[in-house]
Amino acid sequence: MEQKHKKYQRLIDHCRQFPAIPTAVAHPCDESSLRGAVEAAEMGIIEPILVGPHAKIEAVARDCGIDISRYEIVDAEHSHAAADMAVQLAREGRAEVLMKGSLHTDELMGAVVRSGTGLRTERRISHCFIMDVPSLDRAIIVTDAAINIFPTMEDKMHIIQNAIDLAIDLGIVKPKVAILSAMETINPKLQSTIEAGALCKMADRGQITGGILDGPLAFDNAIDLDAARIKKIDSPVAGRADILVVPDLEAGNMLAKSLSFMADADAAGIVLGARVPIILTSRADSVLTRLASSAVAAVVAAVRRRQSDKAVTG
Question: How many Å is the Cα radius of gyration of the chain?
Fold first, then answer.
């Protein structure tokens, strides 16, 4: 425990090799959201564009002793307008990342998914928690615990691909993906086990790329080598998973919160599948978690920028 959350610190340090990423912060109108954005800026992770009621943002900064004199403020009348304006900045290319401020998640995501003016792509939008569990030797990605309530198998294909692409951006060359269920065998009476088997075959056929998939796997034999050995599971994923794919949002939410409250884990959150990565933070997040969420999004944006530059020049 003396090395608590050193994986997040490595991530933040890794992010510093990239230039600060222009980030539209939607409605940073309380101390938590405004300070989080400014701290990420002071670390050189993001270059914030503060979007919301100008007078209110300045009042929060003044009352809380936060220096925002170096940062652009784009005036928006209220939280809904701030969400719309932040999305517009991303569509125009002025922002390469979105960050949730003190508005409700539904307000921001409503602007993101809106037909014609949003940031949707051909991918299903999904959420990933990058979890720093002190007892594990690696950070693990849990998906989806915040966006898709009851994902279909097609949704899960996108959810998995989003998570694999994220892991690769973070430096994991061939991420190991465990598709979770209550058991590690296919049971015709349990739909999640059937879908897990089908998703693995989709990966075999090249419909999901970049990772090594196995499932169904129970949680214990997905992350613990001894548990996998006891059950005699011969798999390159079992006991070594980098990505945990849950059956539905309820399971993901319970898993992430169990790790946070019972294993002392931190959970940095990011939304993928849109034109730009989206940082979803909570008022309960620690400073380190906020910085890690910003760092993850900044790395993803920086990799995308580099890929785009190569495509233009090459």
Answer: 20
DSSP letters of 119-136?
A: -B-SSPPEEEEEEE-TTS
State the average pLDDT for the chain.
92
Residues 6 or more apart in contact with residue 227 via CB below 8 angstroms: 220, 221, 239
- Would you say residue 18 has pLDDT above 80? yes
Antiparallel, parallel or unpaired: β 126-132 and 140-143: antiparallel
Residue 118 · residue 112 · CB < 8 Å: yes
Q: What angle do CA 263, 293, 282 make, to 5 degrees?
A: 70
Q: Smallest Cα–Cα separation from 158: which of 176, 178, 144?
A: 144
CB atoms within 10 A of CB 210: 17
What is the Cα–Cα distance from 164 to 195, expressed in whole angstroms?
A: 18
**Could you give the domains of the chain?**
1-120+277-314 (3.40.50.10950), 126-273 (3.40.718.10)
In sequence order, what E strands does the chain have? Answer: 21-26, 46-52, 72-75, 97-100, 126-132, 140-143, 176-180, 212-217, 243-245, 266-272, 278-279
pTM: 0.92
DSSP letters for 231-287:
TT---SSTT--SEEE-SSHHHHHHHHHHHHHHS--EEEEEEESBSS-EE---TT--H
Q: Rounded to whole angstroms, how far apart are CA atoms 31 and 10?
A: 26
Task: Reduce the DSSP state of residue 208 to 3 states and report it.
Answer: coil
**Residue 135: pLDDT over 60:** yes
Q: Edge to edge, what strands does the sheet with 126-132 contain?
A: 72-75, 46-52, 21-26, 97-100, 278-279, 266-272, 126-132, 140-143, 243-245, 176-180, 212-217
